[in-house]
Amino acid sequence: MKVTIYTDGSARGNPDGPGGYGTVLHYVDPKGQLHVKELSGGYERTTNNRMELMAAIAGLEALNRPCEVDLYSDSQYLVKAFNEHWVDGWIKKGWKRGKNEPVKNVDLWRRLLEAKNPHQVTFHWVKGHAGHEMNERCDFLATSAADGTHLMKDEGIQ
Prior knowledge:
Blueprint: E1 2-8, E2 21-28, E3 34-43, H1 48-61, E4 68-73, H2 76-83, H3 86-92, H4 106-116, E5 120-125, H5 133-146, E6 151-152
């Protein structure tokens, strides 16, 4: 089964800073029916990259069987990590980012690796906020999914 996931890490537009994420799945079932699944979460204190990771995790964890997935994100950090195999080095081999900078969000990277595992995932970077058609689509869909979500505190942020 082929699934398209559109994510946005700051979809809720919280006036006091980043406000959560939204992710939308589009897929056609074996009977030819189109399905749309919306997922979201709002957080009071969360960095954009962390939200984008959580959006991707939510989308992949929502799949109940192995699928061929196209995941669209405006986070170059997220997409490059997989397309250039940084995650293998960071998580599996213990590389540092730069000289001695520890890798952030290791817990989420591990969880994303686990969520990705049964699927064949292609990560696509959509350049942010410059009228890029796919970025606009991600923004619109993910913000719609995230609307109305109550904000929670992200305990992962110190």
